[in-house]
Amino acid sequence: MDERSYVEQKQPSWNALSESLDRIRTLGARSLTRAQLESLGAQYRAVVSDLSFARTQGASDHLIGYLNELAGRAHGVLYASESARTGGAIAFLVR
Question: What pLDDT was estimated at residue 70?
Answer without folding.
Answer: 98
